[in-house]
Amino acid sequence: MTPKVICLMVALVACNKFGLGQTCCSSGVPISNSLGLPNQEANHFQALFSYDYNYLDQLNTGTENLGSINRRRRTQSVLAQFGYTFNEYLSVEGLASHVSQLRRNTLNSGEEENTKTSGIGDIVLLGKYNVFGDELGKELSIGLGAKLPTGSADQLNNEGRFIIADLQPGSGSLDGIAWLRYSLNITKKGSRFISINPSYKWNGSYDDYLNNTATYRFGNELQIFAALNDQFVVAEKLLNTSIGVRYRDRARDQQAIATAEELELPGTGGAWFIAEPSLLYQLNNSFAILMNADIPLYSDVNETQLTPTYRLNGGIAFSIPTKHSNE
């Protein structure tokens, strides 16, 4: 197995779990978790299709877990990611999604209050530059991108009232993304890699919030993902395993009414450590199936918030040369 194919496997496992959820309680679309398709040879097309299920029912105040009380939340996302490699240095990729969210509150009377949203999410575009890569398995790539406000951000509930920003399919803002990935082979056979994948997202302002009466800005977010990847032969096919840990730090959201200055919102922002085991089964050099999970290890949120209980993700990925690459 060549280092290129091994890097494909490692990066697919890592990138499918690499999200920038838009919500205060980490229930949004896994946007930046999903960024970073692997570097390929020139004129290669890549695609990754996945389903993501995120469930939250744990209430935290700071680091104290209050358990599952009367608030639950579920986000389901269908993600389509495409990439193209122009040469050994330059590549681009895009991510589109459809998002369905459900928030369920149990009232003191015992009745349940449900809020649902569904629609196309925001589109992400990322340009990447491969700084260096060698046959020994060392690779460094950097990227810059943007999240475009293509998703709905003004949906109403059944009573005709605006649904809060963190339940909307889109953010309504134009955001910037900085991305980096470094991988290093740590065995002579080239089957075991470590990878480090930090990203940072600057969030713009949604100026038409609440029917043009307010602005809303999600907090900027830093993520650092580190993983150990190894591979084994199962039924004459390669099974890539990965165990990673993600650190996520999110600033408070901000809101301004009319022409007033933006104020930081309580119950938003915090820090999380999340374990992320992954499996990728390589059917051939071009096609793979993958599964991932998020297991929260530590949460330190501002004030009281719902925190993640678990996240599951599965998908298929393929890479094919274009006609031009065969000429």
Topology diagram in text:
Blueprint: H1 3-15, E1 44-61, E2 64-67, E3 71-85, E4 90-106, E5 112-120, E6 123-133, E7 139-148, E8 175-185, E9 193-202, E10 206-208, H2 209-212, E11 214-217, E12 221-234, E13 237-250, E14 254-257, E15 263-264, E16 270-282, E17 287-301, E18 304-321, H3 323-326
Antiparallel strand pairs: 1-2, 1-3, 1-18, 3-4, 4-5, 4-6, 6-7, 7-8, 8-9, 9-12, 11-14, 12-13, 13-16, 14-15, 16-17, 17-18
Structure characterization notes:
This protein is mostly beta strands and 327 residues long. It contains three helices and 18 strands. The chain has one domain: Beta Barrel (Porin), CATH 2.40.160. Helix content is 6%, strand content 59%. It has a twelve-stranded antiparallel β-barrel.
Structural features:
single chain; 327 residues; mainly beta; Porin; 12-stranded antiparallel barrel; 3-stranded antiparallel sheet; 3 helices; 18 strands; disordered N terminus
